[in-house]
């Protein structure tokens, strides 16, 4: 068994929605990013890559590569799973925390879990998503952006 950790941050810019865990959430701002900016999935990709000692998301999908402009982060997650599968790894469970003062994420958490479980080929019971504010402290608390942490456990026979 191996474990990995991922962390990512995206700042806000003008816009009308956020992509988080593959869920489109109406909001008064958008993520500034090369891809769709799904900070939760980016942290999860890094946790999975980290567990398999395969580097990080920017190494596999550089933010200088036009192929990833506006990319669907769920497609990147599925590519990460393929990389792990090629190495004989399967995912045991993942746990993610989104650090966001706004918007309210609780109504979307189950849809996020279902998306991630589907992309990872896992039972939804192996996928957890949590949200926390920072009690208005720091960049998330000032509503300048959102951070996400993820941990993943992988295994092979
Ligand atoms: N963007 C967010 C942040 C938090 N939640 C939910 O609110 C609960 C309380 O948050 P604390 O910051 O006081 O820990 C938390 O358990 C989350 O379920 C949310 O929905 N959206
Ligand atoms: C997702 C990628 C894709 O080019 O770009 P961004 O959306 O900018 O996201 P970030 O987490 O800053 O970098 C990782 C990149 O792989």
Report on the structure:
This protein has 157 residues and is of the alpha+beta class. It has helices at residues 39-51, 57-60, 73-86, 109-120, 138-141; strands at residues 2-14, 17-20, 23-26, 29-31, 90-99, 127-132, 145-155. The chain has a single domain (2-155), classed as 60s Ribosomal Protein L30, Chain: A. The strands form two sheets. It has a five-stranded mixed sheet. Strands 2-3 form a two-stranded antiparallel sheet. The longest helix has 14 residues, at 73-86. 41% of the residues are buried. The structure holds the ligand Nc1ccn([C@@H]2O[C@H](COP(=O)(O)O)[C@@H](O)[C@H]2O)c(=O)n1 and 2C-methyl-D-erythritol 2,4-cyclodiphosphate. The ligand Nc1ccn([C@@H]2O[C@H](COP(=O)(O)O)[C@@H](O)[C@H]2O)c(=O)n1 is lined by residues 100, 104-106, 131-133.
What is the radius of gyration computed over CA atoms, rounded to a whole number of angstroms?
15 Å
* Structural domain tally: 1
CATH topology: 60s Ribosomal Protein L30, Chain: A
The number of strands is 7
What CATH architecture would you give? 2-Layer Sandwich
Q: How many H/I helices?
A: 5
């Amino acid at each position: 068994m191996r474990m990995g950790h991922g962390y990512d941050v995206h700042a806000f810019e003008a816009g009308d929605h956020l992509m988080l865990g593959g869920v489109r959430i109406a909001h008064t701002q958008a993520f500034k990013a090369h891809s769709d900016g799904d900070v939760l999935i980016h942290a999860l990709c890094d946790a999975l890559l980290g567990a398999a000692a395969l580097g990080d998301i920017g190494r596999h999908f550089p933010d200088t590569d036009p192929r990833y402009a506006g990319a669907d982060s769920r497609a990147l997650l599925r590519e990460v799973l393929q990389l792990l599968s090629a190495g004989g790894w399967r995912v045991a469970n993942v746990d993610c925390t989104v650090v966001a003062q706004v918007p309210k994420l609780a109504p979307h958490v189950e849809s996020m879990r279902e998306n991630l479980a589907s992309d990872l080929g896992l039972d939804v019971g192996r996928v957890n998503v949590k949200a926390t504010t920072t009690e208005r402290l720091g960049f998330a608390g000032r509503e300048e952006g959102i951070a996400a942490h993820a941990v993943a456990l992988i295994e092979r026979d």
